[in-house]
Specification:
Helix 2 packs parallel to helix 7 (154-173) and helix 11 (260-270) packs parallel to helix 16 (392-411). The protein is α/β, with parallel strands linked by helices. A hairpin with a 2-residue loop joins strand 10 and strand 11 (218-227). The protein contains 16 helices and 17 strands. It starts with a strand and ends with a helix. It folds into 3 domains: 2-173, MoaB/Mog-like domain (Molybdenum Cofactor Biosythetic Enzyme, Chain A, 3-Layer(aba) Sandwich); 177-255, Alpha-Beta Plaits (2-Layer Sandwich), CATH 3.30.70.2860; 260-411, Maf protein, CATH 3.90.950.20. The longest helix has 20 residues, at 154-173. Belongs to the CinA family. Pfam families: CinA, CinA_KH, MoCF_biosynth. Residues 5-172 form the MoaB/Mog domain.
Amino acid sequence: MIKAEVITIGDEILYGQITDTNTQWISAELDKIGINTVRKSSVGDTEEAILQIFSEAKQRADLIIVTGGLGPTKDDITKKTFCKFFNTSLAVHKEALEELTAFFRKRGREVTGLNLGQAELPLNSTFISNKLGTAPGMWFEDEGKIFISMPGVPFEMKGMMSDLLLPKIQEHFKTPVIFHKVVRTVGIGESLLAEMISDWEDNLPENLKLAYLPAIGDVKLRLTGFGNDLESLEKQVEDAFEEVMPIIHSYVFGYGNIELGEAVGLLLKEKNQTVSTAESCTGGYLAHLFTKVPGSSAYFWGGIVSYDNSVKMNQLGVKAETLEQFGAVSEETIKEMAEGVRKRLGTTYGLATSGIAGPDGGTPEKPVGTIWIALSSEEGTITRKLTLGGFREQNIHLTSIQILNLLRQNLS
């Protein structure tokens, strides 16, 4: 397994002034060609810090990829630091100078003195063309290790990496094949899921590795295979998941990057059924999980955010006596909300949420995190009481996931 380390250089990253998206993208691209990123680091624009991280990375990884610090100003010291690290010096690179001159000429501008310095490269480096900017990339080989330096500007880095460096890296390292498959589960916690499939996991072949990736409301199972032939590896991973599927099938809602709202939408579309929402505590978030999917108008007909009791009564038909006797956060009210929105919007299903999302508003009888959800159809209305925590955004998200899962189970 080829090990890689990705390093970003720039005070602006450490200060939180910009978000580092480069390391995530680079790691994902390396993974596709069978290279494992073992560490990601960010350092400021100081020679001491950069030299230290270079030395450490050289001990840990076979491939070290660096972004940032290649601009024309004095604070961009990456090239000079590479020279010190490799005990070499800068010199004007003919091809880099020609490319830089052509870049400015195409835009009707003259190359400034500061920009001319960008055509200087360490003598031991290989020039990497940058068709989208003024800072060329560099490739270094030293004691069996590869260092690559690229601009920090994301679109320049991605162009250079995709067009030139990924093929060069593959050729140099003769990389193995890695194949991932992700199964998405909902309605079961990580520990219980792990317990349920422990025997299957223990008997996986040595070249298959399972990872649990929990999030708020769902757990991903990622099975990674390592080998030399992609086709046989894909089959091996597929066969392994087929073995465990009878145990977990009731919790599985999809594969890869699909989200629960999209998966439920596909089921509704497949069955030619529709849904509407009546939301109180989720404030439209449930509707958003439907409508963020392109084409969702085929099955999602609309929603009513009934935050105030008057809206529950006037728009959803909730009885005044129900609210007065049981309150907005109750089984009786949520039932009338779900039935009301289904009938008013004429959909197959009506979904409703009402509760105390927090951080305030709780009582001893109904503490923060007390939520009621309901699903209404011609067959009747199903209600569920949720007892969640004290964090508002988490409660809103979990409530929406729970009711989506209730609908998924009803559709399956």
